[in-house]
Amino acid sequence: MIPNFSFPYFQYQRPQLRQWLVRRNQSSISVESVSPSTPAASKAVPNAATNRIVGRWLLGCSGLVVGLPSNATLSCESGLSMVDWHLVREMKPPQSEAEWEAEFSKYKQFPEFKILNHEMTLPEFKFIFYMEWGHRMWGRLVGLAYILPTVYFWKKGYFTRSLKGKVLGLCGFVFFQGLLGWYMVKSGLEEKPDSHDVPRVSQYRLCAHLGSALVLYSASLWTGLTLLLPAHKMADTKNLQQLRRFAKGTGGLVFLTALSGAFVAGLDAGLVYNSFPKMADKWIPDDILAFSPALKNFFENPTTVQFDHRVLAIGSLTAITGLYLFSRRMLLPRRAKIAIGLLAAMAYTQVALGISTLLLYVPTPLAATHQSGSVALLSLAIWVLAELRKMPK
């Protein structure tokens, strides 16, 4: 039986059917016009996903900076074993016995061999040479880890305008750090006829080299953490503002204490007055201002340098303890409380390591651990600052 479409019921339904089909076509057209742009919007860069990638990369770079084996180089006194600096040529160490003899002969022409290591054998030279060679190769690895991903992420559009400036600054600092390292080593290779002291690099240049490395590390860690950790939504109360200022001042004090350690290492100041809390039997030793002019003592007198480092370390411990106690009175996010608690625990550990290093006459493993502890303490201070930062507007 063939349906009769002239029946009034179908005649009544057909206008509604036509309206439904028109609405359906309109909605289909609108969906088709919107859907192609939706993937483009989701793939817009930079976004949360690209920020995580860049943040992890910067954390990895900061790990490479802190992993630079400078502590081992200082402890083994191998920094002056390579007397030349070539960006590419020195990447290949001596291969044959003749090449090793030639390298050893060059080393014999400089003060460290003449005054300190005149009985050194070729196998002993190979050890300190490889220590310094590894340090320099690691530095080149750090440079590549910054520069190559920067080029890739830049082309991909992963950087915001402000982040581009920060990343360029970090890459420029890597180059500066390398040049400063050679400038430091050069100071230890110079002949000093008027000096009868053990050949060593200038403590000023050592401090500058360490300081620039700490700045590079801190900036990379801070930028990486701010990209990975979303800022907390906290009421901007007066107590919170005071806590932020307190945390910034404490972080600056921790940085300054770590930097003063470069003068201690550069002058072997840990080998004088190996007692605590007094220096010998006095709180303030007699020779603290033995040099003239007085300002010279703060940078060249081992007694004064050790005294300054003690004062800064105790000041850092006091400030961190105060920060911890002040934070306990406030309602803070869980992550921020953990960061402050770990900072306090690390501060007491670092002071215990420093005192032990001093009392035991600076054994190499303990001294290296103490130097690494200063970086760990600085890292925790930066984490605290990242957790307490303001929400971006």
**Approximately what portion of the residues adopt beta-strand conformation?**
under 5%
| Rg (C-alpha, Å) | 31 Å
- The pLDDT mean sits at 85
Report low-confidence residues grouped into runs of 5 or more: 1-13, 27-42
What does the largest sheet look like?
A: none
The tally of beta strands, per DSSP, is 0
What is the count of helical runs?
14
Descriptors for this entry?
membrane, 14 helices, mainly alpha, single chain, iron, flat, 0% strand, oxidoreductase, 393 residues, heme A synthase activity
Can I get a quick summary?
It is found in: Membrane. The chain is mainly alpha-helical and 393 residues long.
How does this model look, in words?
The chain is mainly α and 393 residues long. The chain is built from 14 helices and no strands. The chain has two domains: 153 residues, no CATH class; 165 residues, no CATH class. It is 70% helix and 0% strand. Helix 9 packs antiparallel against helix 10 and helix 13 packs antiparallel against helix 14. The longest helix has 35 residues. It is flat and about 65 Å long. The relative contact order is 0.09. The N terminus is likely disordered. It holds the Pfam family COX15-CtaA. This is Cytochrome c oxidase assembly homolog 15 (yeast). Its cofactor is heme b.
Give the secondary structure arrangement, pairings included.
Elements: H1 8-34, H2 37-42, H3 48-66, H4 70-76, H5 97-107, H6 111-116, H7 122-156, H8 161-189, H9 203-228, H10 238-266, H11 297-300, H12 302-328, H13 334-359, H14 364-388
